[in-house]
Design brief:
hydrolase; 355 residues; binds N6-methyladenosine-5'-monophosphate; globular; A_deaminase_dom; Metal_Hydrolase; alpha/beta
């Protein structure tokens, strides 16, 4: 694993609440257990279970969200998640999260996001580049430029359970927080719930306002929705598991980059085994793809592990895996300045790494 950790990587599909350390979740569950809000042993069983279907995984988020309802916890998990990705040598992270309103905690979508931003500012193990306005110095930290650095940008997720109005509130928030590192929006959540027609006008509006859009697409075989999503021409899509011949053709001709989450797809049984995973075909066709973790906490994986798995499952050499990681620079939602700096990071790493 050491080599895969030392290779610089980009993470473009990571859900904040899916990327929490198990130890933190258990600690939070114990606290709620002591307060009599949940039964700790029941929560422990659910949290430590490994093989979950897609519906079970999405149900698990109900428990996780119960554990992460207050601002302090949101700040803490954001800090830890960024530090964990940085420890994996992820040099650019697009972290996505669903802004949540919770009246009993005095939480609005905006204050939820402020807690996330506070978490980014409190990262201490690594220098963080959080935003970059036209004349704003992007790095946050104590100015030691020799320190290891991670670029972090945010995507605001819309959950498919939400109404069009709630989705619009998220888009407005994303627009207002652009100068704080928000670069785009995502549509996620249970693919069996909600209609594309509810969300597309909101996502179209987001795009007109200059936000980039990524969609969870094809987690279930709903061809009508998959076609409508592809025709929307999102800047990227996540998963793309259940496409059929016509839809593959369309995806390839549109050249929409795909965020591939191998372990997540296998664990949720969206794809039955790696030897039939669409990674191989897309990779062989040179279709734009990027390897991502999805929910590193929920699926017990890391960015380095996803690269190691792809290399061994599909017989791809280290140098090609390095190029795969580098090519993802082309699909990030941050601007050209960041892209150039990431190219330099990869150039330096290429001199250092033994292939
Ligand atoms: C669809 C997923 C997902 O936003 O609370 N989420 N949506 N498919 C998946 N594949 C397994 N994994 C995570 O992070 C958790 C939320 O991300 C979405 C779900 O809506 C989940 O509630 P945040 O930080």
């Amino acid at each position: 694993m050491e080599w895969w950790v030392s290779m610089p990587k980009l993470e473009l599909h990571a859900h904040l609440n899916g990327s929490i350390r198990n130890s933190t979740l258990l600690e939070l569950a114990r606290e709620l257990g002591e307060k009599g809000i949940i039964i700790f042993s029941d929560a422990e069983c659910v949290l430590l279970k490994n093989d979950r279907s897609i519906s079970e995984s999405l149900k698990l988020f109900e428990l996780i969200h119960l554990l992460t309802t207050n601002h302090k916890t949101i700040t803490r998990i954001t800090k830890e998640v960024v530090e964990d990705f940085a420890a994996e040598n992820v040099v650019y992270l697009e972290l996505r999260t669903t802004p949540k309103r919770n009246d009993s905690e005095g939480m609005s979508k905006r204050s939820y996001m402020e807690a996330v931003l506070e978490g980014l500012r409190s990262v201490s193990t690594v220098e963080t580049d959080i935003f970059r306005g036209s004349d704003v110095e992007g790095s946050h930290g104590n100015g030691h430029s020799q320190r290891k650095k991670i670029y972090v940008r945010l995507l605001l997720s819309i959950d498919r359970r939400e109404t069009r109005e709630a989705a619009m509130e998220t888009v407005q928030l994303a627009m207002e927080m652009r100068h704080l590192g928000v670069v785009g929006v995502d549509l996620c959540g249970n693919p069996m719930i909600g209609e594309w027609t509810t969300f597309w006008p909101v996502l179209e509006f987001a795009r007109e306002q200059g936000l980039l859009v990524t969609l969870h697409c094809g987690e279930v075989p709903n061809m009508e929705e998959i076609n409508a999503m592809l025709d929307f021409l999102p800047a990227r899509i996540g998963h793309a598991c259940c496409l059929k011949q016509e839809e593959w053709k369309k995806l390839k001709s549109y050249k929409i980059p795909v965020e591939i989450c191998l372990t997540s797809n296998i664990r949720t049984e969206t794809i039955s085994s790696l030897d039939i995973h669409h990674f191989a075909d897309l990779y062989n066709c040179k279709h734009p793809i990027v390897l991502c973790t999805d929910d590193s906490g929920v699926f017990s994986t890391t960015s380095s592990r996803e690269y190691a798995i792809a290399s061994s499952a599909f017989g791809i050499e280290k140098r090609e895996m390095f190029e795969l990681a580098r090519n993802a620079i082309g699909f990030i939602f941050a601007g050209d300045g960041v892209k150039l700096e990431l190219e330099q990071i990869f150039d330096l790493a290429a001199e250092r790494l033994q292939f």
